[in-house]
Design goal:
This protein is an alpha+beta fold. Helix content is 36%, strand content 17%. The chain has 21 helices and 24 strands. The chain is elongated.
């Protein structure tokens, strides 16, 4: 980790010098100076430098009495000064994170003291004050003070921990716990610090820093560490210090916003609201909401979930579903996720950001984190906490892309399992979820190639056999009630279930008792195209498929042909066009609709409708091309199939072969109307106004023989 830190420092060093040139150092190091790969240590200054003056700082403690004769001034090594400048100017993207870093250090100190009081009570007696973190700010005095009642530091620890950048006392403490035969896993898991640079973020906003600290070990003396970050620091013995650490920042005039309670409260609630110990600001407690994801399910009540959901999502209602789980392998993950009652995208509010925050040991790493869950799960609200994810030094971003993808995969699979369980537990409630968030699931099928089959199990559709109690059916339910020998899973795009049942394309399937999924949303057809198959059955659009080729229909046909019917009285003789008549009508239609149609022929797919289009483009794809401006060139030619047994088609043929010119013209008008009707049934008619004049003409001819009454 230290080598990675050194490499990072070297890469951004040039940018840091530009940002801070002439403002940070008394002397400028050589550009060829390289940073040693060993821990940066302190060394005595070659000569005494007078202490720089600083303003008196206010805080929860009275100003302690320093023993001037014990003052020892030390100097940062040249490399340390360079690294300190980089930390102060270039490492962090937001200056406000210095509050997060100082609070995290205070939390670690409290956790260390709690642990040592348990394992070494003879050296570390019980705490006289309750474990807490106190902050106070004073804009008029330009002070920012943070104090904890934690483990504190001795003189040697102050020099080692604050005089050496990238020397993490918390990391060393965790290492000792792990190496101990009686390792306390719970204490190790609660330690936040890793890199040993967080303290130095204070120099982003402070011109002078004082650290008052006294170790909790019996017989310890208090000391004050102070520095302005320009090359030296001093350590002075101090009388009257309580156990713990107090940090006093003399804030720069340009950063006085961090001396206002409103700003500090906002930053605390953003980053450190779920720190385990109490955090107070000017006497008032800030962190009143617990990190519920760190607790056992049995410890959290429904009211706690509602309060936490409202806090983390900014909502005013209660969640529809919730998932509370933890896992230790293959990664340590604790998550608390909620499905809200509704979402804003349906109101045209634009694409939502992810609603899941990423934490590491209760401390916020990324708000509305990208990559924790896939984009199609952006409607989820909640928190994911993992100590397994590698962070960059600033702890503002994750470092290893492979680990983040692994985290996302684990969380996504768990969410899919959770939603599948909810579907079985409460069907009406899950159907309400599908109606509200089904579009996100369908987006997942189209964009998430890894999980699309698992997502497809959650999809729900109306079908031609839907009942009133449960109108929505899953693909698994459809598969389970398919006809014997049925070849495909069939679907039809239509604005509604009623219109689907009235479609000419459905007539053949209705006759053969084949269930058809009804796709009523524009995205549904894209979902089917991306799925292609489900449970080894092809997803087939009935507009482009003749049901006579289905295995169930062929089986029925063989059974019927094998039965000999003795009684022919019930056989209905339908008047139909012969093959020569069909040829005559096909030629007439092709001539009348020249330029609009391709193949014109009779078909046996229709039962109640006179005509239909066949092998045409998808209506939804046509709309998409039109919206995106991709529709170019002349209108396509459609294959036009007519029903030779339909009475209207038979009459049109009679008019078409008539010697009367007016009757032939009427036949032509009827053919044009039949064609437009077929285009409408396929959902492909762009402008219905083109039919108005023709309909008026046809109605006039129908009413031509009616004499008006006087």
């Amino acid at each position: 980790q230290f080598l990675y830190f050194i490499g990072t420092m070297r890469r951004v060093y040039g940018r840091a010098l530009v940002a801070c040139a002439g403002a940070r150092f008394n002397s400028t190091p050589s550009q060829n100076q390289e940073v040693d790969t060993e821990d940066v240590v302190i060394e005595a200054a070659p000569e005494e430098n007078p202490q720089r003056g600083s303003r008196e700082s206010s805080g929860p403690l009275d100003e302690p009495t320093m023993k001037a004769e014990t003052r020892e001034e030390m100097g940062f090594k040249t490399e340390t000064r360079q690294l300190l400048d980089i930390v102060a100017c270039s490492l962090y993207s937001d200056k406000e994170v210095f509050i997060r870093e100082l609070v995290s250090n205070a939390s670690d100190a409290l956790e260390k003291r709690r642990h040592l009081q348990l394992v070494k009570p003879e050296e570390f007696p019980a705490n006289e004050e309750p474990p807490a973190i106190h902050l106070s700010v004073n804009q008029s005095k330009t002070t920012f003070v943070i104090r904890d009642t934690g483990i504190g530091m001795s003189k040697e620890e102050l020099a080692a921990n604050l005089g050496t950048i990238a020397s993490s006392g918390s990391k060393a403490f965790v290492r000792q716990l792990q190496e101990s035969p009686n390792a306390a896993a719970s204490s190790a898991e609660k330690i936040i610090g890793q890199f040993g640079v967080g303290f130095y973020s204070a120099f982003m906003v402070a011109r002078h820093v004082k650290v008052y600290s006294r170790s909790a070990k019996i017989g310890s003396t208090g000391y004050c560490w102070e520095s302005d970050g320009t090359g030296t620091f001093s350590i002075t013995e101090v009388d009257g210090l309580p156990v713990g650490t107090k940090i006093v920042l003399d804030v720069k005039d340009t950063e006085l916003s961090f001396c206002t309670p409103q700003v500090v409260e906002r930053v605390i609630k953003k980053y450190s609201n779920f720190v385990e110990f109490e955090i107070s600001l000017n006497g008032g407690r800030l962190n009143t909401v617990d990190a519920l994801w760190m607790k056992s399910k049995d410890e959290v009540s429904n009211e706690d979930h509602i309060d936490f959901y409202k806090f983390i999502s900014g909502a005013y209602d209660s969640p529809l579903f919730r998932l509370h789980y933890s896992v230790d392998a293959p990664m340590a993950i604790r998550a608390l996720l909620y499905v809200p009652q509704s979402h804003t995208e349906k109101y045209g509010g634009g694409r939502m950001d992810s609603g899941v925050n990423l934490y590491c040991r209760r401390v916020l790493i990324q708000s509305k984190a990208k990559g924790v869950v896939p984009e199609w799960l952006r409607f989820l609200k909640g928190a994911v906490d993992s100590e397994s994810i590698p962070l960059n030094i600033s702890r503002e971003h994750t470092q290893d892309g492979a680990m983040m993808r692994k985290l996302s995969t684990i969380v996504t699979k768990r969410v899919l399992k959770w939603l599948a369980a909810e579907a079985k537990t409460d069907r009406p409630k899950f159907e309400r979820f599908v109606k509200e968030f089904g579009g996100f699931l369908k987006e997942g099928v189209c964009t998430d190639q890894i999980h699309k089959m698992e997502i497809a199990k959650l999809l729900r559709f109306e079908t031609t056999k839907s009942d009133l109690s449960y109108p929505l059916v899953s693909l698994d339910e459809y598969r389970d009630r398919m006809q014997a020998n049925q070849t495909h899973i069939y679907y039809l795009s239509a604005p509604s279930l009623e219109m689907a049942k009235a479609s000419p394309y459905y007539e053949q399937y209705r006759e053969n008792d084949l269930e058809v999924l009804v796709l009523t949303e524009p995205i549904d057809e894209f979902v089917m195209n991306h799925l292609e198959t489900y449970a080894k059955f092809k997803l087939q659009n009935i507009e482009t498929f003749d049901a006579q080729h289905d295995g169930w229909v062929q089986h029925k046909k063989q059974q019927i042909e094998g039965e000999k019917k003795d009684n022919t009285d019930d056989v209905k003789i339908k008047k139909a066009l012969s093959d020569p008549q069909c040829k005559e009508l096909s030629d007439f239609i092709a001539k009348r609709l020249l330029g609009k149609v391709g193949v014109v022929k009779s078909t046996n797919r229709l039962r109640d409708s006179p005509a239909m289009l066949a092998d045409h483009e998808s209506a939804q794809m046509r709309k998409l091309y039109k919206i995106t401006g991709q529709q170019q060139g002349p209108p396509p030619k459609y294959n036009f199939h007519f029903n030779p047994e339909h009475s209207l088609v038979v009459k049109v043929h009679s008019l078409a072969v008539s010697t009367d010119a007016e009757e032939r013209e009427t036949a032509g008008l009827l053919v044009e109307q039949l064609f437009d009707n077929a285009v409408i049934a396929a959902g492909l008619l762009d402008d219905p106004r083109t039919m108005v004049n023709r309909l008026n003409t046809l109605m006039t001819r129908m009413a031509g023989d009616v004499e008006p009454k006087a």
